[in-house]
Amino acid sequence: MAPKEGLAAVDWESLARRVGTDPVFLRELLAIFEEEKGKHVSSIRKALADGDANLLKAAAHALKGTVGNLCAPRVFEEASRFEECARRDGPTEAGKFWPSLERSLDDLVQDLQKVLS
Amino acid sequence: MPSLLLIDDDRVFSAIFDRKFKEIGWECRCATTAEEGLRLVKEKMPDVALIDVFLPDGLGVDLVQKMKALNALIPVLIVSVSGEPQHVITAMKNGASDYVTKPVEFETVLEKVRNLIDFKTIRKTENEIVSLKDSRFLFGQSPATKQLLHEISRVAYFDSTVLLRGETGVGKGMVAQLIHELGPRKNEKFVEVKCAAIPEPLLESELFGQEKSQTAGKFEAADGGTLFLDEIGDLAPELQIKLLRILQGGEFERVGGLKTLKVNVRVIAATNKNLEAVLETGRFREDLFYRLNVLPIFIPPLRERKDDVLFLAQHYLKEFSQKLHKRFEKPSAEILERLTAYNWPGNVRELQNVVERAVVMGKEPQFAPKDFALGPTSRDPMAKRPSEDLSSFKSLRELEHKSLLDALRRSSGNIARAARLLGISRGTIYRRLRKYDIGLKLDHGS
What we know:
The complex is a heterodimer of chains A (117) and B (446).
Chain A: H1 12-19, H2 23-50, H3 53-68, H4 73-89, H5 91-95, H6 98-116
Chain B: E1 3-7, H1 11-23, E2 27-31, H2 34-43, E3 48-52, E4 54-55, E5 58-59, H3 60-70, E6 76-81, H4 85-93, E7 98-102, H5 106-132, H6 143-157, E8 162-165, H7 172-182, E9 190-194, H8 200-208, H9 218-221, E10 226-230, H10 237-249, E11 251-253, E12 260-262, E13 266-271, H11 275-281, H12 286-292, E14 295-298, H13 307-323, H14 333-341, H15 347-361, H16 376-379, H17 396-410, H18 415-422, H19 426-435
Parallel strand pairs in B: 1-2, 1-3, 3-6, 6-7, 8-13, 8-14, 9-10, 10-13
Antiparallel strand pairs in B: 4-5, 11-12
Helix pairs in contact in B: 2-3, 3-4, 5-6, 6-7, 10-12, 13-15, 17-18, 18-19
């Protein structure tokens, strides 16, 4: 479940190609991402606490999709593995890997904020 | 402007794609739930819909079905995140046209939706052409014609300027009318101007209106609709500048007027000239050419779509027979063979004339081969006239005068065509008309 080494948090070149380089729009996008991430993280925490497999699957899936937009291959891969584990093994097993993914998500936001501020 | 509806609760994805589609001039609306998506579809049918597999209030696959119930032709592109193959399969079974897997680049999605719109438009066009059941839009069934219909359906959909190219008689006017009737302005006016048929001094007023007499021109008449400018290659240089300005910003002044007027007109221009060659002579502005040539369509001559000859001939035979209350049996194999073998330099117009003449001249119930007069006679009733004995003219002046009158009669008073017949420019023919005091009454056939 450990993420592969050597994958940059944000592939800026790909992000510029996909989204453009307008800093105003990039900041807007980051704000939307933070809101969406907040929603998904809350749902996942709740699903893990309640042992709600369906909610966990749905939230993990949505989180993976949202992360995928930002050209962050390492975090995307981690989110994909988390979703796979949630679907295959359920909340208890997936819960073991959640703290690591949550940290990666925070790091991703910080990286983006640093560059875009 | 194509319109797209994006139904996805991934707001980051929607924000990126909304911006990208708007950047290239598309109308993009976003919904985050199935309910909202369906409401937007009912408000205004989009040209294409992008739907996520999972939505907060239901599955995208079910939404596809509901949308298709509202409009079976609407193309749907499913957007999925990897790991949902069963839903993608169901979506396709429910009528989705294609799918993409996130993360996905904008260019990939754009290519797919463009193809879907093309496909939808072609289907729509074919359906509409069939449903029109209108002899004004008669094409045929040859591969070249099918390709032409494909191109018509593509350009009809957009609102850009179209340049129709093709020989005299191929049906440029019919294509222009069809583009209008299949396009977004179909409920507005379709106004036609034959640029070469109107004497130069009058054409400016005809197009842009006259302030003194408070007469609106054709641009004003076509406001909101389509203006078809036929024989655009004959437009005088000063009018080319005015036309360029109107194409750029829709603005113009009436002749003699100071007030700037603004119109919203889709222009479809047509020419039988090789405009690239005319550009080199400097008689046609390069900037205007590129402004007109946004969506070019070449209408192939009838000799390049021989499969259409019999189809069209049979249609015209029926039409003219009904009109003239005559009843004929099917033409013999020999006649049909001659019609197919002939190369139709006058194109569809010539075919129409040949068939009309055959119906008029033919003796019921059987056509004779001689009823179908092919060759110069069919194109130009003057061409086979016995040539005048030159010695009968007293002077070169008299011969020139006679030639001018002949050319004007043969072209039904069309100055540009008469000039072409004589191999001289329009400017020269006007000078000669003044020289011999030949009035424009000839334009009306007297």
